[in-house]
Amino acid sequence: MTHWFHRNPLKATAPVSFNYYGVAAGPPASKICNDLRSSRTRLLELFTDLSCNPEMMKNAADSYFSLLQGFINSLDESTQESKLRYIQNFKWTDTLQGQVPSITEDEAKEVHRSLKIAAGIFKHLKESHLPKLITPAEKGRDLEARLMEAYIVQCQAEAQEVTIARAIELKHAPGLIAALAYETANFYQKADHTLSSLEPAYSAKWRKYLHLKMCFYTAYAYCYHGQTLLAGDKCGEAIRSLQEAEKFYAKAETLCKEYGETKGPGPTVKPSGHLFFRKLGNLVKNTLEKCQRENGFIYFQKVPSEAPQLELKANYGLVEPVPFEFPPVSAHWTPETLATFDLTKRPKDDSTKPKPEEEVKPVKEPDIKPQKDTGCSIS
User: Fold this and answer.
1) Bridge-partner residues for 262, per DSSP?
2) How far is 368 from 266, CA to CA, in rounded Å?
3) Is the pTM of this model over 0.85?
4) Any signal peptide, and if so, which residues (predicted)?
5) How many CB atoms lie within 10 A of CB 210?
């Protein structure tokens, strides 16, 4: 999946020591700070650890966030903020400005679930935390609502791609596959539209990816819709549907080339080189030729000048974000522990604030070599 889904670079972050000399005025406070430092370091290490699995990532994230919540929310479960809410600033980089391997069924399920969880996390941030920012995010920054919405929708679309691959392999009804492909194309179109008002200098590459995926799955929708029409003895309409699939597939091929030539954040994936991509081209060609043969020998139907309207609705398989909640506050946080943080001892010259000129080194992402391209096979 690494070389099929476009990804913006991993966000990098400046080191945080959690050393509050004078403020952390007792052993409980010092322990909280030490645990925060080690749990944050561990979480960041897992981002580039190829041996990391979803359970390891969740456990590390829960460990860190259960401790961090004592700096965010009041311990009495009221709506009040913690007295430590503004003691620490964090600095992050900005992701925009600053062949398909065979996978097992279990792996496919993990990819599908992980993308739904990711969508839920982005949704939670957008709805519950972005409104609380002291300074609204600047246009085009990661915490701006438009970018957050694009991430949510892209995660949903990519999760549905796994559903489509599975439906094709299990030979589900063409009508269902066409509907899922149509809904997925709409997701990609929505994500692209969300980014349309951003500066092309840093959004063009991402948008090319979203646009090519929209065309690709629109071609899938028309292809399988054509099969449905043929099964219903509507051969003329089936031919027109397949012709439309051919048009969108050719457009997706062109966009793949443009995507590869467009400069922008993130590594460049090569969708057109994947067997999953090439298989669709052959399927469209062969199905269209079959329809044309049968129309010449059996049906003798007129081919409409207008493409059929795709008003397809999948009755199952649609992806919704998995609701996200932070883990419970760590048991180490008690009123007595909080009392050992003395903000009156905070230095006037607050060294915890990152300096404006401080640079954050980019994350060195692992170079994952593509496996042999065996096509979109989920077994």
Assistant:
1) none
2) 14
3) no
4) none
5) 26
Per-residue pLDDT band for 374 (boundaries 50, 70, 90) equals very low
Dist CA 98 CA 11 (whole Å): 10
Q: Are 4 and 102 in contact (CB under 8 A)?
A: no
Residue 21 per-residue DSSP state: T
Question: Which H or E element spans position 239?
Answer: helix 235-261
Token digits of residue 244: 């439309």
Mean pLDDT of 289-296: 96
> Would you state the structure tokens that stand for residue 248, as one six-digit string?
């969108």
Residue 370 in contact with residue 2, Cβ under 8 Å? yes
Which residue, among 272, 141, 169, 149, has the nearest Cα to 219 in the 3D structure? 272
Q: Which among 208, 196, 218 has a CA at the least distance from the CA of 255?
A: 208
Task: Note whether 71 and 33 are within 8 A (CB).
Answer: no
Structural tokens at position 330: 């760590």
Number of H helices, E strands in the chain: 9, 0
Nearest by Cα to 194 from 125, 156, 158, 140 = 140
Task: List the one residue out of 112, 104, 66 whose CA is nearest residue 318.
Answer: 112
Q: What does 61-85 look like in DSSP terms, one character per residue?
A: HHHHHHHHGGGTB-TTSSSPBPTTT
Please check the confidence at residue 368 and state whether its pLDDT lies above 70. no
With a cut of 80, say whether residue 255 has pLDDT above it.
Answer: yes
- For 77-87, what is the mean pLDDT? 84
Q: Average pLDDT, whole number, for the chain? A: 87
> Which of 211, 274, 279 has the alpha carbon at shortest distance from 248?
211
Residues 165 and 100: their CA atoms lie apart, in Å, by 11
Structure tokens given for 82: 């913690």
Q: Would you call 276 helix, strand, or coil by DSSP? A: helix
